[in-house]
Amino acid sequence: MRFHSAITSLGLMLTSVGLVLSIPLPIMQVAAIVEIDQVLARFSVAVDTKDLALLDDVFDANASANFNDGSGILHGRDAIREALEEGLAELISQHYLTTITVDVDTQNRTAKSRSYLQGTFFGQGLLANQTYTTYG
């Protein structure tokens, strides 16, 4: 079944053969969903291209992260960047984000997002010919 989408002044309209669903979404909510989706994608691009300066647009300066790699909880954007830089030193990576959901509470100006992530890492140098895949 093919879906076409269009953002209208009334919200998001999904159409399919013989079926029209109208889901009213305020423009602020649609913009928040798109912006959050872009931040998630920017993380993958930053890591996969090793352009870790892009993390400034992903993490707040006081962010915390736990990559479940034995390094524990990292505190601060700089610590996150340094851990990624060290961890990716001899790896080429490709990240996939799927099943992204974003719930926006426009009244309280908050949002919660969830996505599934798969990262595949290809060893270089001392790790040549080794491949690792992570899921989360």
Task: Give an overview of the whole structure.
There is one protein chain. The protein is 25% helix and 40% strand. With 136 residues, the chain is an alpha+beta fold. It starts with a strand and ends with a strand. It has helices at residues 27-49, 77-87; strands at residues 4-8, 11-16, 19-23, 64-65, 74-75, 91-105, 110-123, 131-135. The chain has a 3-stranded antiparallel beta sheet with strand order 1-2-3, with no helix packed on it. A 3-stranded antiparallel beta sheet has the order 6-7-8, covered by helices on one side. The protein has a two-stranded antiparallel ribbon with strand order 4-5. Strand 2 and strand 3 (19-23) form a beta hairpin. The chain has 2 helices and 8 strands. Mean pLDDT is 83; it is low at 1-17. The longest helix has 23 residues, at 27-49.
Radius of gyration: 19 Å
Beta-strand content estimate? 35-45%
Question: How would you describe the shape?
Answer: elongated
Q: Mean pLDDT, nearest integer?
A: 83
Strand order of the largest sheet: 1-2-3
Low-confidence stretches: 1-17
The CA-CA distance between the termini, in Å, is 29 Å
Q: What percent of the residues sit in helical stretches (DSSP H or I)?
A: 25-40%
User: What composes the largest sheet?
Assistant: 3 strands, antiparallel
Q: By helix and strand content, what is the structural category? A: alpha+beta
SSE arrangement, N to C: EEEHEEHEEE
The beta-strand count equals: 8
Number of contiguous helices: 2
Keyphrases for this structure?
disordered N terminus, 25% helix, 136 residues, 8 strands, three-stranded antiparallel sheet, alpha+beta, elongated
